[in-house]
Amino acid sequence: MPAVDVNQDLQHERSKCSFNQKEFTLWWVGGKDELDKKRFMENYYVNEPEFHDEVPLYYASHKELYEQTIRKATTIFTKVRKFLQEQGKYDAKNYVKYVDALLGTGVMKDSSPLRLHFVMFIPAIIGQGTPEQQAKWLDKALNCEILGTYAQTELGHGTFLRGLETTATFDERTDEIVLNSPTLTAYKWWPGSLGQTVNYCIVMAQLYSNGKCHGVHAFMVQVRDEDTHMPLPGLEIGDIGHKMGFKGVNNGFLGFKNYRIPRSNMLMRNAQLQRDGTYLKPVTPVLTYGTMVFVRVLIVRGMASDLAKSATIAVRYSSVRRQSVINPDQPEVQIIDHLTQQGKLLPQIAKAIALKLTAENLWKMYQETTSELNSGKLDRLPELHAIACCLKAVSTTDAAKGIEVCRLACGGHGYLSSANFMSFYTVAMAASTYEGENTVLLLQTARYLIKMWNQASKGKKLVPTVEYLAKFVGKPTKRQPWSESIPVIIAAFQTITANRLKQANARIEQRKRGGSTPEEATNLTALELVRVAELHGRGFVLQSTYEMVELACQTCSSELATVLRNLCKLVVYDEALKFSGDLLRFTTISETGLVQLQQKYETILAAIRPNAVGIVDAFDYPDYVLGSALGAFDGNVYQRLYDEALKSPLNQEPVNKTFELYLKPLMRSKL
């Protein structure tokens, strides 16, 4: 990016950068091919006038915003198809890859009502459909001849899938499945794109045949006419209304009244329903939830990106904004020179990188597990499910908190819509509840950890992510020797997790002996279990960050290695200080040791401070993706804030009609 008319303070910050930014960027995005693709997609969007708004969409009504978002999304599809055809590269798979890459760049601030078509509808067909079903629907979906979403959550039930009320009853006479919403709370509620956008959806419902309930299964359901787009008879469908964020996603509701679909529309890769109503159950019920696990992996990656964007905005603004003095005889300083500001923002940079590396580690695990599934091996599927649950919870919690820290660090200007923290924050807040509410997901992980603890007690070998537990089974609680090395601190998190799990398991057993059922005993121990699962997830984040940073440092320049290791230290020290009480309980750290840890933390802040702008620049988010008057590359904050204010519809006329209608009569009424 050219350094033309760049704010002098921001330019001075860039001159301090001690590492090669391009090297960092290539590491961050995953290599030259990924960087070229990313920049092509971003430039492609920026250079298309049809994608731009003269008036920002946050001034639009709910209806106007949806219509403009649909216009942009469909324009993307048309333009990408044309581009690939001109390049001689057009096929359905390539088309989906480019479209999804473009939608994933973040250029559509209120998200896209067609994103779920690619991240849930198509993966559900691939993951749960038979070869015959894929032949019927997959090409149509890939070519966008049909548009779909994933309808699971109901008005009265979300994360607790066994409680879903929508019924799918097999009628042997007609070889059909009859869908019903027996109550208002059974209406599907929240699926993105469902309101007015899609004409098909994957519906999760309770399957009944031969008088028995077989649990929740997935069904392909057409909801609108392919030609007229009118809702089909037997359905009630619409938009759920205005939300805090995701305003372009067109979340919808769907109710069924004796709505019939062919038996063959049940996705039967894992479970089958035969013509006579005989039900063949899957090898493991977790296979049914493969699409959700896939999405949780994507969520962790998305949280890293949104936190990195927010940190970019806040760090650039903090380098431009001058506020208060440190020495009374000197001018006001850049607010990034205040240690409190560094303590707010630099850990967010480090956390964004940690979540990104964790997402890569989780993605690798997902691919390996999926490959094993295709070979009939199911051993690691529960492990993947458990770690994806707690990482989804940890990443969304940390991203939401971190983005809010970045907003607060920008003072009053951070509250403006033109600062664009709103886009990132509402995504992180929403992600804390969709695809599994965080507390429920942590409890799912905790139940898995209890199971693994009991297996280790019987001498069974544990899978990689929990094998550290075996070191603590059957042994008295012993405080871990403390030192300030990164591997020792990571091991301390494992020690804390294992010992707290041991205590929670003992409490459950004690309550069972006191007369509680296993379920009651677990509920009464839930606060401890949630904490254990969170610690397990945080330990995984720190371990992933350390291992992947050290791997990168084997091949990168010494300058970049220093920066990466400092960022790793910062995220580890930051987490350790937040859990100082647990460190005092389960390690030999003393009060003096905590003071020394705080001092090392502040030393690392000082070491990273000169490179702060260099690092966020190396994240390589163009202005259009950031969409922020505070975070633009040139740092001309105040001019951009003023220019954005002038776009307000209220500034398009010198006198608003309310003066004649209301203000003038009031002022002349001589009250």
Basic shape: globular
Overall structural domain count: 2
How far is the N terminus from the C terminus?
Answer: 60 Å
CATH-level-4 superfamily name of the largest domain: Butyryl-CoA Dehydrogenase, subunit A, domain 3
- How many helices does DSSP assign? 22
Beta-strand percentage range? 5-15%
State the helicity in percent bands: 40-55%
CA gyration radius, whole angstroms: 27 Å
Low-confidence stretches: none
What composes the largest sheet? Answer: 6 strands, mixed
Question: Average pLDDT value?
Answer: 92
Task: Give me the secondary-structure category.
Answer: alpha+beta
CATH architectural designation of the largest domain: Up-down Bundle
Q: According to CATH, what is the topology of the largest domain?
A: Butyryl-CoA Dehydrogenase, subunit A, domain 3
Instruction: Please count the beta strands (DSSP E, at least 2 residues each).
Output: 11
- CATH first level of the largest domain: Mainly Alpha
Characteristic key phrases:
671 residues, alpha+beta, Butyryl-CoA Dehydrogenase, subunit A, domain 2, 2 domains, six-stranded mixed β-sheet, three-stranded antiparallel β-sheet, globular
Task: Provide a concise account of the structure shown.
Helices cover 54% and strands 8% of the residues.
What does this structure look like?
The longest helix is centred in the middle third of the chain and has 36 residues, at 339-374. α2 (21-29) crosses α19, α9 crosses α18 (591-608) and α12 (438-457) crosses α15. The chain has two domains: 148-282, Butyryl-CoA Dehydrogenase, subunit A, domain 2, CATH 2.40.110.10; 288-472 and 481-662, Butyryl-CoA Dehydrogenase, subunit A, domain 3 (Up-down Bundle), CATH 1.20.140.10. The mean pLDDT is 92. The radius of gyration is 27 Å and the shape is globular. It is 54% helix and 8% strand. It is built from 22 helices and eleven strands. It has helices at residues 8-15, 21-29, 32-46, 62-87, 92-103, 115-128, 131-142, 290-320, 339-374, 381-409, 421-431, 438-457, 486-513, 518-524, 526-553, 558-578, 580-586, 591-608, 612-618, 623-626, 637-646, 658-667, and strands at residues 148-151, 167-171, 176-180, 188-189, 200-209, 212-222, 235-239, 252-256, 259-262, 272-273, 279-280. Strands 1, 2, 3, 5, 6 and 9 form a six-stranded mixed β-sheet that branches. A hairpin with a 5-residue loop joins β10 and β11 (279-280). By secondary structure, it is of the alpha+beta class.
